Amino acid sequence: EAALALAKTEFPETDPIFAFIEDDRATCLLRQGKPDRALEASSKALMAAKLSVLPNSAEMGSLLSNQAVMLAAVGKFQDSASAGESALKLVRSTLGESHPLSISAARNLAVTYIELDNAAAAVTTLNEAIDATNTSAPSDSKTLVTLYLAKASALAKMEEAAAARETAQLALQKGASKEAELNAEATVVLARAAINESKLEEAESLL
């Protein structure tokens, strides 16, 4: 809030700084558990960006990607998917498919697709991100882990148990087992795969 007030005294309203400040506010508000206010700040960030020189830039793609996250946080998954698709197209066209922002936007969009029961689109989007990461940054195990886990979740939702199990195991091999939250996510996917295969005792032991 203080940064925004100061900026208003120092810069014209068309300066891109207002978009960045509002975007940072949105992220902070979301982390504070205030998704409605976060979405409001994100919308202000986009409005500020449109007044500046950002409309077709990578920065606009980043702002759109963040707004997609805010929309998902308040349950507006269809709107989130629309924003996420626009963001992904923009960041890929300006930064390339292998840029970290493109990978992040792809993962966020895929998670939204899963919420919309469009797991097939999620898998396609994640496969593109996985291929790009393996080509440009094969040693980035943390990014690969998050992508594999999202893909495993989508496959489990499609009741592709064997593929979900294999993908979750890949995530564990890449390092998911070293972090409690990621390990738990992989375990849940493995349990869901076991349930899909009617291996209830295995699922129970995992959970």
Shape by Cα distribution: elongated
**What percentage of residues falls in helices of 4 or more residues?**
over 70%
Structural class from helices and strands?
mainly alpha
H/I helix tally: 11
What does the radius of gyration come to? Answer: 19 Å
Number of strands: 0
Strand content: under 5%
Mean pLDDT: 89
Major sheet attributes: none
Low-pLDDT ranges: none
SSE sequence, one letter per element:
HHHHHHHHHHH
List keywords for this structure.
elongated; 207 residues; mainly alpha
Itemize the secondary structure elements and their pairings.
Blueprint: H1 2-10, H2 17-31, H3 35-51, H4 58-73, H5 77-95, H6 100-115, H7 119-136, H8 141-157, H9 161-174, H10 180-196, H11 200-206
Give a structural overview.
It is a single chain. With 207 residues, this protein is mainly alpha-helical. It has helices spanning 2-10, 17-31, 35-51, 58-73, 77-95, 100-115, 119-136, 141-157, 161-174, 180-196, 200-206. Helix 8 packs parallel to helix 10 (180-196). The radius of gyration is 19 Å and the shape is elongated. The chain starts with a helix and ends with a helix.
Summarize the structure.
This protein is mostly helical and 207 residues long. The protein contains 11 helices and no strands.
